[in-house]
């Protein structure tokens, strides 16, 4: 008789056989509760060729746009912080914040009598860039009986003959000065005394001859008032002596 070798997996083991004599079937690692288990090599093979986001159309353009927007946003924030610092520290001043310190931009309409020269106290400043001009004019005013105070140099972008500045209590005295310096512009500041400042500008040539001074009543002169209001860029810079 020929003996045939029966494979192990085909050998029937009785249910009531000794458990120690029953062979344990090999465990299938590719299956878990009836579901196929994906192995590591299979996962690596699956994702090895997956394209990255940079391979998508328009990826670079979107990244560039995002970078530009972020840079602009950071710039706006930095500019805002710098601007706030500048305003708080007085580096930047808004017109409304300094309006109280600036000369009045409205020409007074009061009619003044001609005040005697010896009742007028005047300070003379040279902003014309001509050496000795302030002293020369101050000497001429002294000769006409004026009380001359400060005589010094100054600066201004004003291009008329001269600027006449006083407080509200010195307007009558300023009217007298304007009759002796033709073509000047009057400005009012916040001083409380009756003194008058004369700021000689590049357009100044000479005082009105004493015999030609008009001493009849009149108003202060602001010939460039309309120009100053219409174009703030042409406002004369009135220096603080």
Note the main attributes of this structure.
about 15% strand; about 240 residues; alpha/beta; Alpha-Beta Plaits; 5-stranded mixed β-sheet
Topology:
Blueprint lengths: L30 E2 L2 E2 L3 H8 L11 H30 L6 H4 L22 E6 L6 H11 L3 E7 L8 E5 L4 H10 L4 E4 L7 E5 L24 H6 L11
Parallel strand pairs: 3-4, 3-7, 5-6
Antiparallel strand pairs: 1-2, 5-7
Rg over CA atoms, rounded to whole Å, is 48 Å
Count of DSSP-assigned helices: 6
What's the arrangement of strands in the largest beta sheet?
A: 4-3-7-5-6
Q: What is the chain-wise order of helices and strands?
A: EEHHHEHEEHEEH
Mean pLDDT: 76
- Name the structural class: alpha/beta
What is the CA–CA distance across the termini?
Answer: 139 Å
**Largest sheet, described in full?**
5 strands, mixed
> Share of helix among residues?
25-40%
Low-confidence stretches: 95-104, 228-232
Q: Can you tell me the CATH topology of the domain at 103-234?
A: Alpha-Beta Plaits
Q: Could you characterize the architecture of this molecule?
A:
This protein is of the alpha/beta class and 241 residues long. Among the domains are: 68-101; 103-234, Alpha-Beta Plaits, CATH 3.30.70.2390. Helix content is 29%, strand content 13%. The protein has helices at residues 40-47, 59-88, 95-98, 133-143, 171-180, 225-230; strands at residues 31-32, 35-36, 121-126, 147-153, 162-166, 185-188, 196-200. Strands 4-3-7-5-6 form a 5-stranded mixed β-sheet, with helices on one face. Strands 1-2 form a two-stranded antiparallel ribbon. Helix 5 (171-180) links the parallel strand 5 (162-166) and strand 6. The longest helix is centred in the N-terminal third of the chain and has 30 residues, at 59-88. The model is unreliable at 95-104 and 228-232 (pLDDT under 50).
